[in-house]
Design brief:
The protein has 369 residues and is of the alpha+beta class. It has three domains: 76 residues; 60 residues, no CATH class; 220 residues, no CATH class. The strands form four sheets. Strands 9-8-7-10-11 form a five-stranded mixed β-sheet. It has a three-stranded antiparallel β-sheet with strand order 1-5-6. A three-stranded antiparallel β-sheet has the order 2-3-4, with no helix packed on it. Helix 5 runs antiparallel to helix 6. It is elongated and about 80 Å long. The structure holds zinc ion. Zinc ion binds next to loops.
């Protein structure tokens, strides 16, 4: 691992000194130097050069904006093992050390084995650090075309999901996450000990516990939603955190609560799980008016007590479910075609483009109806 780290750093240094740009230039300039100076990892030189050249590429990009950007330097030892440098036989991972020579054997547990024994699954490169081994898995997904949709609203109190088949889920565990984080913050702020070492240790323990709990809750919800085999629709919340920064009129407490809700983690999980298990990208719609308009007639809603909304058309509902309904309708061509309210701000072209395949299916479905 030390050697791999050294190789990358050396390759970066040489690459910058000689201003190398292409992979080829790297190979001819760096390969022999590294090969002459490494003892064990000749098998890994190509990968080290690849890492270095992509790092330099990134550096050039950032330097265009910020000319003072630092040259990347790897501090932690690690190794990337390419596919041709390892084998998995039975329950043992064999990692090649020298070309055509010895292997290091590492036993794998059943859970790990089960992860890549599914059909259409292949293992990719392996990353090893001093205490972890990560095996990347390549999954060939057959993409499914859905006829049912789910609109999902994520807010401070819950995750509300409205399905096109009429089902409604409200996951109120989200409030638990906010509470866990608040408790953590409180414990941290009340902790006044002089011994920095001990307090640091305790915070770390709390922090890890908190992250584990949060992750678990979020995993359960995202799994449940993705396993429905329906097309997921979310608001495009790029920049939501920017909305809740200082000086935007919200109190510090409210802001910190909102920022503590792992929006990004949840959405990231939905995205990757939808891709991985269903082979489908989620649809993202513009968040305009999703919470302020009636999902039945499109008029402005009147907020009531207990997070309820009321509309002059007679519609009364939980505000989060109403929002999820709006998200569903905005992103679902079939519902729009059924004659429900077409939001004036809905950029239909965009939605249609994103769900082209889906649209065709739903059209034929309508014909059948
Ligand atoms: Zn209405």
């Amino acid at each position: 691992m030390e050697e791999f780290r050294w190789m990358i750093n050396e390759a970066i240094r040489i690459g910058i000194e000689k201003n190398l740009t292409s992979q080829q230039a790297f190979n001819s300039n760096v390969y022999h130097y590294l090969s002459d100076n490494t003892e064990f990892l000749k098998l890994y030189i190509a990968r080290a050069i690849q890492v270095a050249s992509s790092k330099i590429k990134d550096l050039r990009k950032t330097r265009r904006k910020n000319p003072n950007a630092k040259i990347p330097h790897y501090k932690k030892p690690y190794v990337i093992v390419d596919k041709q440098s390892y084998k998995i036989i039975g329950n043992t991972l064999l990692i090649g050390v020298r070309p055509g020579q010895s292997y290091v054997g590492i036993p794998l547990n059943n859970h790990t084995i089960s992860q890549f024994s599914y059909p259409h699954t292949k293992t990719g490169a392996i990353t090893i650090t001093h205490d972890t081994i990560s095996i990347s898995i390549l999954k060939e997904t057959q993409s499914i075309t859905f006829v049912e949709f789910i609109g999902i609203d994520t807010n401070l109190n819950n995750i509300s999901a409205v399905h096109s088949d009429g089902m409604v889920n409200v996951f109120s565990d989200v409030a638990k996450i906010t509470k866990i984080k608040e408790r953590y913050r409180r414990v941290k702020s009340h902790f006044k000990r002089n011994d920095v070492r001990i307090s640091k240790k305790i915070f770390q323990k709390y922090g890890t516990k908190q992250r584990c709990k949060t992750k678990q809750i979020i995993h359960t919800i995202s799994k449940k939603l993705v396993s429905q085999k329906k097309q997921i629709i979310l608001e495009d919340l790029n920049g939501i955190r920017k909305l809740y920064r200082k000086g935007n009129g919200q109190g510090t407490k409210y802001r910190s609560r909102l920022n503590s809700w792992p929006f990004y983690e949840f959405r990231k999980q939905l995205e990757y799980k939808s891709k991985l298990y269903n082979g489908v990208e989620i649809i993202k719609i513009k968040p305009n008016h999703t919470s302020s308009r009636c999902s039945i007639c499109g008029a402005k809603v009147i907020p009531e007590e207990n997070r309820q909304i009321r509309c002059h058309c007679g519609h009364r509902e939980d505000r989060d479910i109403n929002a999820a309904r709006n998200i569903l309708y905005k992103g679902t061509p079939v519902v729009q075609l059924r004659g429900l309210w077409l939001r004036p701000d809905a950029s239909q072209g965009e939605v249609m483009k994103q769900s082209k395949d889906v649209e065709q299916i739903t059209m034929s479905q309508i014909n059948q109806l």
